[in-house]
Amino acid sequence: MLSGALLTIDGLCVAYDGSCALNGVSLQIHKGELICVVGANGAGKTSLIRSISGIVRSSSGIIKMNGVDITGMPPWEICERGIAQVAEGRQIFGSLSVEENLLLGGALKRAKAGQSETLEFVYQLFEKLCERRGQLAGTLSGGEQQMLAIGRAIMSKPEVVMFDEPSIGLSPALTDVMFRVVKSLHEQGATVLLVEQNVAKSLALANRGYVLENGSIVLHGSSDELLKNSEVQRAYLGL
Amino acid sequence: MLSLWLNVLASGILLGLVYGLVALGLTIIFGVMRVVNFAHGEMVVFGVYIGYWTVRLWNVPIIVAAVIAAVVMFAFGYLLEALIVKRFVNRPHHYQFIVFIGLSLLFSGTLLVAFGPDPRPTASQLSFQTVSLGLLTLDLARVQAAATAGLLIALLGAYLKFSPFGRSLRAAADNRLGGLIIGLNIPRVYAVTFGIGAACAGVAGALISPLFDAQPYLAVDFTLLAFVTVIVGGLGSFGGALLGGLVIGVAEAIAALMFTPSMKTALPYALLIIILVYRPRGFFGAKEI
Ligand SMILES: Nc1ncnc2c1ncn2[C@@H]1O[C@H](COP(=O)(O)OP(=O)(O)OP(=O)(O)O)[C@@H](O)[C@H]1O
Ligand SMILES: [Mg+2]
Predict the structure, then answer these.
(1) Where do the domains of chain A lie?
(2) How far is A101 from chain B (nearest CA, A)?
(3) Cβ pairs bridging A and B (under 8 Å)
(4) Does A78 contact B183 at a Cβ distance shorter than 8 Å?
(5) Lowest mean pLDDT: which of B128-132, B183-187, B280-284?
(6) HEC profile for B185-235?
(7) What kind of architecture, by CATH, is found in domain A32-57+73-235?
(8) pLDDT in tens, A83-140
(9) Is the pLDDT reported for residue B29 higher than 80?
(10) How far, in Å, from the CA of A39 to the mean position of ligand 2?
(11) Is B167 on the interface with A (CB under 8 A)?
(12) Does B213 touch chain A (CB under 8 A)?
């Protein structure tokens, strides 16, 4: 099982000014899987995603993509290897148009070929973005901005997409739409790492899940196992 | 009288375009990297000397001197960023302030050692020629400088608006973290940005070399001028830098006419204070300092 993993993380530690945010996190994602990492505020979810993408330096541990050690590589080289993210707070370019945001997502070498087809694909997925392609991204609604952040990630033709709490700040109805989008991307073959506080909804979608607490993985298993786990039920599902 | 006023206004506008180019360089660097290039005036003076020497040695037209200044100063800015400035981009402002003041002293000192403190009157024949247009009689050098500056500003604007690199530059200015997330090579964007900013200063310097005597001490004036211009227009705003340049150019010209030529440099600062009182972020300012 270990050998076939697309993304392998082993003993990852991240510290900010000496205070530990991740403390020896290990996890694997296989090609075509949808896994979720759930945890409360401050558990270290964003730190995990940012250290995988090279934006935050890890103090120890190894991250491998397709068997290649990518630990310590700069973010643009890691993106070039097919790891994209839909970041916390969306991080779109508000003063640029919707289409410019998407084209920037597709500016990597790996995504240059067939860029216009990918753009078409994104516009088909999110018709709202197509209607508003010329509009400044900052004027989109929160839900539309989240779609744009997803579209921008798709533009880079990633092998793995990491979602950092994509449903945060969205209405219940939009949250459902959001999870449906993640699901349909997965069904179309994307490998997904979904980071969420919405434990019930993300476990319902995922093949497997990890529970992150205070920077450590305290539980992991198939979604069914976790949903039945009494600790998870008590701490995260309010049962 | 009317023709005098028209001439003063026109020459103010012409020089204002060049000031706009200087300010644009400062504002682009600030907008993208959030650092304030206190050595900007020295970069203008490098351009003045490039203009002075290329014209003197090879007697090239001022446009060619401007292109040479653009290339040389772009390379200079790029290397300066990649070797030194880069290390301070994420440091607190007072660190950056000290670094840039240090660089500005280093550059001024280098100019003094290389060329001495004495002003060098331009070798260009241009300085004495004029063109007439109805009521207007304008220095040919000024017209050429303004036309070239205007053209370059338009080209730069189009490049930033329509080219893929321009898009990356605007993205990095808008949201640095967003840039890292999509895999923008931020260090390269920063180095090119600094190169573009230095090139703007250098070109402006070369363009005014027929109008100003080359002299190392000009640098302080130009740094302050670029500052005032950028703040009048609004820090980080492309259109603001241009408008600021025009306002300052015209204000200087009017001050020299209405009061005495020595008031020329004071009026823009008075204007700055007035504008900051009423529009603390300048005409187009949107960005926090
Ligand atoms: N840039 C930073 N500097 C210092 N400490 C940080 C920084 N970023 C995060 N931390 C700390 O690291 C810990 C983990 O933060 P992180 O943002 O990874 O949590 P999270 O699980 O994403 O939380 P949330 O659900 O609120 O987004 C927290 O204690 C946080 O205060
Ligand atoms: Mg987070």
Answers:
(1) 32-57+73-235
(2) 8
(3) 63
(4) yes
(5) B280-284
(6) CHHHHHHHHHHHHHHHHHHHHHHHCCCCCECCCHHHHHHHHHHHHHHHHCC
(7) 3-Layer(aba) Sandwich (3.40)
(8) 999 999 999 999 999 999 999 999 999 999 989 999 999 999 999 999 999 999 999 9
(9) yes
(10) 9
(11) yes
(12) no
